[in-house]
Amino acid sequence: MLTLALSKGRIFEETLPLLAAAGITVSEDPEKSRKLILSTSQADVRVVLVRATDVPTYVENGGADVGVAGLDVLIEHGGAGLYQPLDLQIAKCRMSVATRDDFDYASAVKQGSRIRVATKYTAIARQHFADKGVHVDLIKLYGSMELAPLTGLADAIVDLVSTGSTLKANHLVEVERILDVSSRLVVNQAALKLQREPIRRLIDAFAQAVAARQ
Ligand code: ADP
Ligand code: MG
Hints:
By secondary structure, this protein is of the alpha/beta class. It contains 9 helices and 11 strands. Residues 7, 9-11, 51-52, 70, 72-73, 91-93, 160, 162, 181, 183 line the site of adenosine-5'-diphosphate (ADP).
């Protein structure tokens, strides 16, 4: 049995066409079902639904053999024990610093002020500001980062941006790009040895489907 860990939402939706290219159809729509384990058109392949941030943990510890995780989640998690054979070029976005549109970020940086930064991505943010030599107080949040500068909780946020419409709706502006993000295929190291053939087939089919789109 090959177990594939996916998160609900855009990663699940955008992985479906890649699975189709590998001849795999998922039996149920996770938006309509409460099941967390979904069977597929291939009796020896199943999908487990986990939180996006839990995908590396599942795959690293053998709760799943393969998974799809955003580069944001992989960097934040560490991902050292994972084989990462393929950039799937899905769920594309970028990690950026954003502030209120009336906050002068460039001046704050230039003056060497301490900047209060709210984010879910504390490891990435810590590294980014350390590289720039900017002093920050990091505030860990688990969601709705946009709210932090509007309420005075923070001067800036580090968050994912795609179109920028969420920032705009909240009077925030992107002041710095940190990283381009897309989702990656991740594989458990032991599974790669024990289930070499089915995993190879999956990687190859995904790779072909990704290449055909570019
Ligand atoms: P959660 O709500 O559990 O944080 P999301 O569905 O928002 O999960 O994000 C899952 C993954 O999708 C993220 O780790 C990231 O790689 C990617 N992602 C998040 N936001 C966007 C976006 N606006 N556009 C494209 N990809 C995104
Ligand atoms: Mg989200």
